[in-house]
Each structure stands twice: as structure tokens, then as C-alpha cells.
Amino acid sequence: MEAAAEAEAARLGMPGPRMAAQRPIYMGFMGAVGVGLALLLYYVMTNTAQLLLWMLAALFIALGLDPVVRWLEGHKVPRPAGIVISLAVLVGLLAAFFAILIPTIVGQMSQLIAKTPGWISDFLNSDFFKNVDTQYHVRDQINAQVAKFFQDSQAVGGIFGGVLGIGSTIANSLFGALIVLVLSLYFLASLPAMKRWSYRLAPRSSRKRVESLSEEITRSVGNYVIGQVCVAVINAIYAFIIMSIVGVPFSVLLAFVVALLAFIPLVGSLIAAITVTLVALTHGWQTAAVFAILYFAYLQFEAYFVSPRIMQRAVAVPGAIAVISVIAGGTLLGVLGALIAIPTAAAIMLLIRELFIARQDRH
């Protein structure tokens, strides 16, 4: 070995002196490289923000489906077949759900639009509005503002631009959903290989520890996603049953809204309750009161009995940290940030407990 090293040194020459970190040229050059890399990273992230959000959503879905694929693997189903079965069932359920739901939603939206002028007319003819209009001349001010609006060509053009913008938003949403579905398929198929590759980035001495922590985090996130789906479905079914019994209008449409809002932790169910109660007021204050009492009673039952049993294998985050993380995630990334806030907070808490606190306990 020494002879080979000497021969290699004789062929290539002796290495020159290393550039010391204390030299100003070295420090200036490395500082400039660091600033350049930071600017490049900022440019890439700002120009690919939408793609990064799609990737994050796809990874979240893949982690949610991974426990199902693992369960199928435990029952002697190969992983590729388990992936195909899981995605086929998911897409089939979504397709059947929307095939049944969309005609009902369209019909109820048409009824809502048809009834809205009548509600407005009843309000304008009510004694309350007449008294307010007598004192503050609200009707004259509204007519003046409407006339001024239609005389403004830019404002009228903005209406048509807004309609085109809505169509563009719908098209982009459909394209984004397709991208997320494809990325979810790739992530789910390559998740074990991605994990093995990422584990090799850690030093060999701590690789086992990194692997165990990462597996616990991904398993918790997957269980959280599945648990949240179950909680949202149960919430929507209960709300639909109560709305059908007490006679809340547009029950199918509102149940769909409740299911979507139930995915938002902590505040989603509260927003859904307020929304449905306001719609129920159009049918009468008795209907709204009965629905509010029964639904808020269910939310208490869900908080103390349903969620703990469904989420017992998922994540455990204190209430204060959960509220702060949901607000921060919603502020940074919108609805997606609110959805992933609690599992992210749980992962951070796990790392702090297993790394920092464990090291502090040893000292």
C-alpha cells in the first residue's frame, strides 16, 4: 500500500498547501459561493412554488396510502399489486362519489340560486329593513352604487375577466389534481427505495437510529391521514342524517361541505357547524336551533370518544401546540398547510424528544 501511494505521488506530484480557512481570500470566496447558492435556492423555490405544493400534497397522500399497502403486503399481496389496488379503490370511490353527488349538488345549487331573489325580496320588504332604510336611506345608496358600477367600463370588464379567471382556475385545479394523482402513484411505488436512499445520507453509526425515527414518523403520518378520513366521513354522515331529519335545505350539498371542512383540524368542524346553522335559519330558527344543539353535541362526543379511538395509533399533540401549528400552517400554505400542520408538529416533537431531550438527560 505504501509503495502504491509513493508511486501515485511520484506520478501526480506532491499536493500543494491547503487554503487555510483564516485567509481572507478563502473566506470571501466561500461567503460569495454561499450567498450565490442561497439566491439560487430562493429563485428556484419562488418559481416552482406550485410544483412544490403539488409534490407535498402527493407525498402526504402517499404516506396516507402506505399503511393500506403494508396491510395488503402482510396478507401476501405483492407491493405493486397492493399499490394498484389501493389507488384503484381510491379513484373508484371518488369517481362514484362525485358521479352520485354532482347531479344532486347541481340541482340544489340551482334551487339555491332560484330562491335567493325571493330571500332578498323578503328581506327588503321586512319591517327591519324598512326602518333602517327610513333612517339611513340604504336603498338609495345601493341604487346609486349599482348605477355607478355599471357606468364604469373597467368594472364591467372586470366581471367578464373574473368569469374567465374562474374558468382558468377550474382548469388549473383539474390539471393540478391529475399531477398530484400521478405523483402520488410514483411516490407510493418508490417510497421504500426513497427511504433507503435517504437513510444512507446519515452516518453509519447512527443509521439505525435515523431509520427507526423515520419509520415511526411516516407510520404516524399515514395513520393520521387514514384517521382523519374516517373522522370526516363519520362527521358528514351524521350531519346529513340530522339535516334530513330536521329538514335543513340542501342537505347533500351541505354534507359535502361538512366533509371537506372536517379535514381541517380544530376549526373545520366549527366552521361547518356555523355554515349549516346559517343555512338552516332560512327554514326557521327552530330548525337551526335543533341542528346546532345536536351537531355541537356530536362534536363533543367526537372530541372525547371518536377521535381518540381512531387516532390512538397516529399522533398525539397537545392542544395548544396543535392550535398554533394549524394557524401557522394555514398562514404559510393555506388549507394544505393546515392539513399537514399537526403531523408535522408531531414529527418535530418526536425528534426533539428522542434527540435533544434524550441527549440532555444523559448529561
Could you list some keywords that capture this structure?
single chain, 363 residues, mainly alpha, 86% helix, globular
Give your account of this protein's structure.
By secondary structure, the chain is mostly helical. The protein folds into two domains: 36-202, no CATH class; 209-363, no CATH class. Helices cover 86% and strands 0% of the residues. It has twelve helices and no strands. The chain has helices at residues 2-12, 24-47, 49-74, 79-124, 127-136, 138-151, 153-199, 207-246, 251-262, 268-280, 285-310, 319-362. Helix 10 packs antiparallel against helix 11 (285-310). The longest helix has 47 residues, at 153-199. It is globular, with a radius of gyration of 29 Å. The mean pLDDT is 74.
Our measurement of the CA-to-CA distance between the termini, rounded to an integer number of angstroms, reads: 43 Å
Strand content: under 5%
Find the count of extended strands (DSSP E, 2+ residues).
0
**Mean pLDDT figure:** 74
Helix-strand topology string = HHHHHHHHHHHH
What is the helical fraction, as a range of percent? over 70%
Q: What general outline do the C-alpha atoms trace?
A: globular
Estimated structural class:
mainly alpha
Largest sheet: none
**Stretches with pLDDT under 50, minimum 5 residues:** none
Report the total helices. 12
- Work out the count of structural domains: 2
Q: Cα-atom Rg, whole angstroms?
A: 29 Å
